[in-house]
Amino acid sequence: MSTRVAKQRPEMRKEPRQARSRATVETILEAGTRILSDEGWAGFTTNRVADLAGVSIGSLYQYFPDKLSLVDAIRRRHLDDCLAVMRESRADGLSPVQFVANLVRAMVAAHGIHPGLHRVLLDEAPGSGDYGNPNSEFEIEYLGYYEEAVAACRNGRRGEADRTAALIISDAIDGVIHNAARRGMLADPLVQSELIRLVSLYLADGNPKAAA
Amino acid sequence: MSTRVAKQRPEMRKEPRQARSRATVETILEAGTRILSDEGWAGFTTNRVADLAGVSIGSLYQYFPDKLSLVDAIRRRHLDDCLAVMRESRADGLSPVQFVANLVRAMVAAHGIHPGLHRVLLDEAPGSGDYGNPNSEFEIEYLGYYEEAVAACRNGRRGEADRTAALIISDAIDGVIHNAARRGMLADPLVQSELIRLVSLYLADGNPKAAA
DNA sequence: CGTAATGTGAGTAGATTACTCGCATTACGT
DNA sequence: ACGTAATGCGAGTAATCTACTCACATTACG
User: Fold this and answer.
1) Which of A58, A122, B115, B149 holds its CA 20 to 30 A away from the CA of B121?
2) How far is A97 from chain B (nearest CA, A)?
3) pTM for the full model?
4) Cβ contact (<8 Å) for A191 and B198?
5) How far apart are CA B23 and CA B21, in angstroms?
6) Could you say which of B161, B175, B179 has the minimum Cβ distance to residue A190?
């Protein structure tokens, strides 16, 4: 027997086997992402998602058992993308300040495509897994990278202060990006450079050698 | 003649004349505020507001012609409160950095009561007036104060850079406060002091004398 | 060519909710 | 006391909305 899919809440009702159906699932996810970003959780109805995706509502429910599993899949994708961006920004082996500069640029670029998505996923959309709430797997890893950068700037010994500093940086970046998006100013290069300056100054405080 | 209330969309259907009804309206506004903050726009139904306020749904509609006018009234109140906080913080005649320190403290205190309100009002709740969208009366005045502080730190000549700096500061503070609230860490004194440090460093950059 | 995978979309049942209306109670002026 | 205006009540409703099903059509695979 063993239908193979036997999780508590299966995230897919039926595994897409052919290329066609894999494309369908992809299209649905993309459409859902766009709607969440543009219209918020309120506009996110399964019928609308199917419409925008250009597939029938039936097809949607063939792969996602319910609305929640769809939004979960979207959230997972997005947060994994965020983590990937972080890992890449760090992998360059540059100074912490350069890390932040790269990160900000990458984050701005990422949010340029779906400006409202992050906020909607974190604040509006109901979450089933722990993905997305404070102390989630995601936030742990996410903040960990910031902590690393902070600690690297402050001679390595981590303390509560470093954890707080990581929060401050992460949340400040988040706020600037989100509000810039709200005002349609994400593309403004001045916003980007000033944001980098804000974070860099904070990071380098008391560490002149790390300033560049 | 002259019922005095003659706007295009009257914000009140009937003006409360006795003390009792004024208290009722106050209770309704308070209940609505709490629900918006705690449950978000999705949980904000007129019946729930009336329930929480301890008044009948009929009483609610006696003073607010529709749901939108209620949320508008709440928004107006909140944003006016924010502006009041800004004006007070500046009125002390202290240095720009002290202004920011006071402001952050006041903002944190304000958001401690209704942590989610600001975000919900700005991002989720539909707006009828221009109150709340970019370039609104509110944002103009709000950012104006920040610009003032920035300009004061930079020898007075305002330019595009100053406006951008004001945005950065405002949005960074917003982000930190909002995410701290989400994590239940608004009370953490470290968060507060580090936020002040973040902004102060940025403001004082290139202006050693303004550092304190 | 049999069968499994995929796609369709009209339809529905259920829930939600903004708002009304007829009436009860309370306060005010005289 | 008493007429009148203000205030308060809350069951009810009409309308909307939407998650989800199902019976059937089409496409691909072996």
Assistant:
1) B149
2) 15
3) 0.91
4) no
5) 5
6) B161
